[in-house]
Amino acid sequence: MNPHLLDLSGLKCPMPALRTRKALRRLTPGHEIEVTCTDPMAVIDVPNAVREAGDELLETIQRDASLIFRIRKAEARS
Q1: Residue 2: what pLDDT?
Q2: How far is 37 from 6, CA to CA, in rounded Å?
Q3: Among 58, 57, 61, CA closest to 37
Q4: Residue 1 pLDDT exceeds 70
Q5: Rounded CA separation 2/54 (Å)
Q6: Are 69 and 56 in contact (CB under 8 A)?
Q7: For residue 10, is it left (φ>0), alpha (ψ between -120 and 50) or beta?
Q8: Which long-range contacts (C-beta less than 8 Å, at least 24 apart) are formed by 61-66?
Q9: Is 13 a catalytic residue?
Q10: How confident is the model at residue 21 (pLDDT cuts 50, 70, 90)?
């Protein structure tokens, strides 16, 4: 299953974290999303948003001026 792609290039803090959080709410548990950001603050803000939501940050990749986050939506809590 390929991850959903979310390109947030050009957006400044706090928009990448807010848009990532919104996108995660729409995902089915177990699905993955790949978020691309260019704001340097995203390296702090996006992982914090993922942790606060209880989801899983699988990988952070630095590629030139972009940060790419692979995130898995957590299973529903009982």
Answers
A1: 78
A2: 9
A3: 61
A4: no
A5: 21
A6: no
A7: left
A8: 65/38, 66/9, 66/36, 66/37, 66/38
A9: yes
A10: very high
- Cβ neighbours of 14 (radius 10 Å): 14
- Rg of the chain (C-alpha set): 11
Residue 58, amino acid: L
**Residue pLDDT, tens place only, 28-74:** 999 999 999 999 999 999 999 999 999 999 999 999 999 999 999 99
HEC-encoded secondary structure of 1-43: CCCEEEECCCCCCCHHHHHHHHHHHHCCCCCEEEEEECCCCHH
Q: Which residue in 11, 13, 57, 58 is the catalytic one?
A: 13
- The end-to-end CA distance of the chain, in Å, is 25
Find out whether 53 and 32 touch, Cβ atoms under 8 Å.
Answer: no
